[in-house]
Design goal:
Blueprint: E1 3-7, E2 16-21, E3 24-31, E4 34-39, E5 53-55, E6 58-60, E7 67-69, E8 75-77, H1 91-105, E9 114-115, E10 117-120, E11 123-126
Antiparallel strand pairs: 1-11, 2-3, 3-4, 4-9, 5-6, 6-7, 7-8, 10-11
Bound molecules: FE2/S2 (inorganic) cluster (FES).
FE2/S2 (inorganic) cluster (FES) binds next to loops.
């Protein structure tokens, strides 16, 4: 069932907005005046995608930079491991970033869902 989520003017081009309803959460996206709704949680480790960045139709996760198509929900690029740091003098501390990168390499990034959406009389309606 389609439900009014926002007015078209509430979301600028490139904007992201958290929406919810029916016990579900999604991110409303404006790509050049066209609107899309995508599952809120990243397909890698569940980061909130409304805190990411939208470049064209590609949404980049704020946590490890996995990228998703807002049109299909397809995972386009896997996560980027945290950069190696050289600030610590303790060998144990220095091993942590590499260990985390190894752990992350074993976590597959799943596609995310998209939701049906339509615009009527300036309202964006989504079927969550
Ligand atoms: S949680 Fe999104 S890329 Fe890791």
């Amino acid at each position: 069932m389609f439900v009014k989520m926002a007015k078209e003017e509430d979301l600028v081009d490139g904007g992201l907005m958290l929406i919810s309803g029916n016990g579900k959460e999604a991110v409303l996206c404006n790509y050049e005046g066209k609107f899309f709704a995508i599952e809120r949680r990243c397909g890698h480790m569940n980061a909130p995608l409304e805190m990411g960045t939208l470049t064209g139709y590609i949404l980049t996760c704020p946590m490890h930079s996995a990228q998703f198509s807002i049109i299909t929900g397809e995972a386009l690029a896997g996560p980027v491991p945290a950069p190696q740091t050289q600030v610590s003098t303790a060998q144990k501390t220095e091993a942590i970033p590499g260990y985390l990168a190894t752990l992350m390499s074993g976590i597959r990034t799943e596609n995310v869902k998209t939701f049906p959406l339509k615009v009527e009389n300036g309202w964006i309606l989504v079927d969550l």
